[in-house]
Amino acid sequence: MKKLLVATAAMFSISAFAQAYPSKPITIVVPFAAGGPTDRVARDLAESLRKQLGDVSIIIDNAAGAGSSIGSSKVAKAAPDGYTLLLNHIAMGTMPGLLRNMPFKVESDFEYLGMINDVPMTLIGKPDLPAKTYKELTTWIGQNVGKINLGNAGIGSASHLCGLLFQNAIKVDMTTVPYKGTAPAMTDLIGGQIDLMCDQTTNTSQQIEGKKVNAYAVTTAKPLTTAALKSLPTLQSQGLSNFEVTIWHGLYAPKGTPADIQAKLNTALKAALKDADFIKKQEALGAVVVTDKRVEPAEHKKFVAAEIAKWTPIIKAAGVYAD
Hints:
The chain is of the alpha/beta class. It folds into two domains: 23-119 and 247-318, Bordetella uptake gene, domain 1 (D-Maltodextrin-Binding Protein, domain 2), CATH 3.40.190; 121-218, Periplasmic binding protein-like II (D-Maltodextrin-Binding Protein, domain 2, 3-Layer(aba) Sandwich), CATH 3.40.190.10. It has eleven helices and eleven strands. It has helices spanning 2-20, 37-52, 69-76, 91-98, 134-143, 158-170, 182-191, 201-209, 259-272, 276-284, 297-318, and strands at 26-30, 58-62, 84-88, 110-118, 121-125, 149-152, 175-178, 196-200, 214-218, 249-254, 288-289. Strand 1, helix 2 (37-52) and strand 2 (58-62) form a beta-alpha-beta unit. It is globular. InterPro entries: BUG, Bug_dom1.
């Protein structure tokens, strides 16, 4: 009887704790530098989540480095009480292939709370490239095999991964030129020092609209509708079957976070994704807010598992590692 009373009291304590949640500020760890695309998504989401969680304070903690594993590891080791969360992007699907020594397990050391958005990518080229359409680009690539430089924002970056997938899809190897960020890579592309780059719309839309680069295609399954990009074909429509790359973002909690708190966070996330102000801010970034079943934790986890299965063999075949 005494044991039963103790167990009942413990269950009541956990339930009461979950009902009171949140009773203090929540920290969202962003495993990238402040000011970047993922940081902007996190800050926009924090504002909308705050309104859904009783006006609680939400702090953004930028813990950048090691292909996002530093910040992710910080959350994996945090107390599972719902007060330390992780907002990460496609790195959750690529770290298992990129990192030799993973400090945590993506699929088992986190509670999945739901997906946030998809950020499309674009294939672009230097302004004086003679090819002006994707069809002309394929001809030009065929005529210049072994001479083409493909820039990216660094080993393991979104642009690097997209470039790897593109080379794999067209069966042509290019000279990969990694930079320390998108800005220097874009500067050299505009200046003609590199030939091609594949990067997210948050970084390319302005350059495309200003006609500072040649734009050839988008990496989504369907054409985009934004003014600067709606004329671009998809790579799938150009013959690259199943070619789809988006820089998606998701929200996570440490493994063992109480189910009631997970449910409360998922409900708040779903409401935040319907917030007109948040949607407007994401559209300005070139991002598409998720409205499909991936907002559900189980579906989000299933999606990440598929991303790991997709990217790991491509990364390993390229011999790429981010120690």
